[in-house]
Amino acid sequence: MKKILSVLLSAALLAGCAAPAAPQTTPESADKLQVVATIFPVYDWVREVAGPDAENLDLTLLLDGGTDLHSYQPSAQDMAAIANCDLFVYVGGASDAWVADALQESANPDRKAVNLMELLGTRVYEEETVEGMEAEDHDDHDHEEHETDEHIWTSLQNAAELSASLADALGELDPANAARYTANAAAYGEKLNALDGEYAAAVEAAPVKTLLFGDRFPFRYLVEDYGLAYYAAFPGCSAETEASFETVAFLAGKVSELDLPAVLTIEGSDQKIAQTIVQNAGGDRAILTLDAMQATSAEDAAAGTTYLSVMEQNLAVLRQALGVEEEA
């Protein structure tokens, strides 16, 4: 893997700004901050902190076009974008193992790299295997023995804190606009905190306090924020798609035992496991989707999708999954 990345790094540095996906150094962009964010939630946080009329910043979403965080490997063009940027923001989990090698080379000696999981410190959770969940086979993965849960963006509280940290990072690189970044982050934080309050109120009013996923589970940070219990077929970073009979039977039993109104999936799911669980649980159960934003693209963002809009949609789904009656 390191040999492959070394070749990509060499190609990136030779290609420089000529690579199509890399930020271009033109008369219009020469004085702009070049910022690269790996995934959509982080990309959108930077957009909010920079502000809608920011003309001093070029922002690139690295994992674009539905690329999955867990299977992503950088291209030479991606390496060029990272090598030439002023600020590189990444999650810092097991799926970002390639980043250490990518950061060894840079065409910009002043480039700043921000590892978001490092900023959260002890508030990062270890990925856990709960009752009924199929444990991941780590023999086929390069992950550490105690893998951390990298889906930190599913917490609105984390989003508010990390957006403020991104404002600090931008301000260090661009002192002339530091006050604007700080003000934008504060205003954005108020919106995030308000939505966080709506989530808390929904959970408080809910007759059900358990979520059940017939799918992978990337929402550990969300359920921890509001004290919810959960069951799922697979951990958040699992590559598995086929659940065993034992797992399906256990989850179907939990749906019946707890009389859950819905079984959840994540975006892009074929819902086959969820359908089997519902069929075996009996009763009238919905199959709902919570969006972890792992396939959201820059095109979606240009069409109006934001981190907040997705989390607002997720709140509506959560209310239904927890049996919260809609107000008349």
Automatic annotation (TrEMBL):
Pfam families on file: LPAM_1, ZnuA
GO MF, one example: metal ion binding
Statement: the UniProt record of this protein carries the keyword Transport: yes
Signal peptide: 1-21
Ranges in a coiled coil: none
Gene3D superfamilies in the cross-refs: Nitrogenase molybdenum iron protein domain
Keywords: Signal, Transport
InterPro entries to which the protein is assigned, alphabetical: Bact_metal-bind_prot9, Membr_lipoprot_lipid_attach_CS, ZnuA-like
Keyword Oxidoreductase belongs to the record: no
Domain of life of the native organism: Bacteria
GO biological process: metal ion transport
PANTHER family associated with the record: HIGH-AFFINITY ZINC UPTAKE SYSTEM PROTEIN ZNUA, HIGH-AFFINITY ZINC UPTAKE SYSTEM PROTEIN ZNUA-RELATED
Similarity remark: Belongs to the bacterial solute-binding protein 9 family.
Designated name of the protein: Metal ABC transporter substrate-binding protein
